[in-house]
Amino acid sequence: METVLPLNQDEVEMEVLELPVDDISIEEGVAVIFAQKVNFTEVSRAMDTLGYHIVESDLQFLPQNEISLSGEDLDQLHTLVDALENDEDVDKVWTNVK
Fold first, then answer.
1. What is the pTM of this model?
2. Preceding peptide of 6 cis, ω within 30°
3. Are residues 8 and 44 in the same domain?
4. Which of 57, 73, 88 is the endpoint of a domain?
5. Into how many domains does the chain fold?
């Protein structure tokens, strides 16, 4: 995922169409571009070469199948996620829970 500024919405969409991206979302003058991990560097470099200021750029897990939890299962998940987030060796935690 990348966030780029400044932008002209039509111009960004046309330029991004030529890149290996999965999706682009433009809201309030900010473009968020989604690409596969294997295309991350290529897309980052292309946006930089095109003159866009990249505000944020990182890898994220986007689940294909989300699940719902409730009650004790949800409480256990929160306990696990809290423990992982408080571990200094863990950078980020993702789940597929809605």
1. 0.66
2. yes
3. yes
4. 57
5. 2
pLDDT digits (tens, 9 = 90+) for 27-59: 877 888 999 999 999 999 998 898 888 888 888
Q: Is the same domain home to 34 and 72?
A: no
State the average pLDDT for the chain: 88
> 70 with 41, same domain?
no
Range of the domain at 43: 2-57
**Can you tell me the distance from the alpha carbon of 56 to that of 45, in angstroms, rounded to the nearest whole number?**
13
| Ranges of H-type helices in the chain | 9-17, 40-49, 71-85
Paired sense of beta strands 2-5 and 30-34, if any? antiparallel
Amino acid (one-letter) located at 22: D
Q: Quick one: pLDDT at residue 3?
A: 59
| Judgement on whether residues 50 and 76 belong to the same structural domain of the protein | no
Quick one: which of 2, 4, 16 has its CA closest to 53?
4
